[in-house]
Specification:
Strand content: under 5%
Order of helices and strands: HHHHHHHHHHHH
CATH architecture of the largest domain: Up-down Bundle
Number of domains: 2
Shape: elongated
Distance between the termini: 42 Å
Radius of gyration: 20 Å
Helix content: over 70%
Number of helices: 12
Mean pLDDT: 85
Low-confidence stretches: 1-12, 75-84
Length: 240
């Protein structure tokens, strides 16, 4: 096992750290999007006294989403926040907490983002604990009802984080790595936001349109000797 590294070792570049944040957010938000209809179905099933096997199926699906969000339930695997066992929300909370002292001078949204990620993470942990009791002890409808506001909090905070991340992203209009990350993950962003998100974001960043963005990306990567990326940049910009 590699020796522990202080967070500053891998977060010296705020650009790289912000890409870590965006990556974990996409994973977390995708799970949140799946979970939202699930807990509504679960609530309906309880109200209509559906067969327990149906309720158990829905609880299992919610549990799967919460496991991806919070990671391993074994405490001793939580030492390294960037490991898969930490879960997407655990890593998002960790990365945003490091991001605040580095970049909070840019925008108050950065501090708010860290708080929002923490709220979502702790809501998911609480929901997972309630779910564990429901599935291992006697099933009680009043206890089950405590699950819904927790899941709602997780999803609401992820939705708010989506808005905050857009505000923070605008500060990286001159950072070719963050711009290219958005191009690479365009389909995930567009699906999550329900619109041509990356194109709209680029148009906010560049008043002269996506051609201005293409010019900046090509110029920056040529300066760094990454000429092999130019065809990919041109293709991705052309298909926005």
């Amino acid at each position: 096992m590699p020796a522990y590294q202080h967070p500053s070792v891998y977060s010296q570049s705020s650009s790289l750290l912000f890409q870590f944040i965006l990556d974990e957010f996409l994973i977390a938000a995708q799970e949140g999007a799946k979970m939202s209809p699930l807990y509504l179905q679960l609530e309906t099933a309880l109200l209509r006294h559906r067969p327990f096997r149906e309720i158990e199926r829905l609880l299992s699906q919610v549990g799967g989403a919460l496991a991806i969000l919070t990671g391993s339930a074994r405490i001793h695997t939580q030492i390294y926040p960037w490991t898969p066992s930490k879960g997407a929300l655990g890593k998002l909370k960790h990365y945003t907490s490091i991001f605040v002292p580095q970049e909070s001078r840019l925008d108050a949204s950065i501090s708010e983002l860290a708080i929002t990620a923490s709220k979502s993470y702790h809501g998911a942990l609480e929901a997972r604990e309630v779910l564990w009791h429901l599935r291992t002890g006697p099933f009680l409808i009043p206890q089950a009802s405590t699950l819904f506001p927790l899941l709602h909090r997780v999803v609401n905070n992820l939705n708010y984080a989506a808005t905050l991340l857009t505000e923070v992203s605008l500060h990286y209009a001159s950072d070719e790595n963050v711009l290219y990350f958005h191009l690479q993950r365009r389909s995930s962003f567009d699906l999550l936001y329900g619109c041509s998100y990356v194109k709209e974001l680029f148009c906010q960043m560049f008043p002269q349109g996506t051609e201005e963005a293409k010019g900046l990306l090509i110029s920056r990567y040529q300066e760094r000797g990454f000429n092999h990326l130019i065809p990919s940049i041109e293709e991705k910009i052309a298909t926005l």
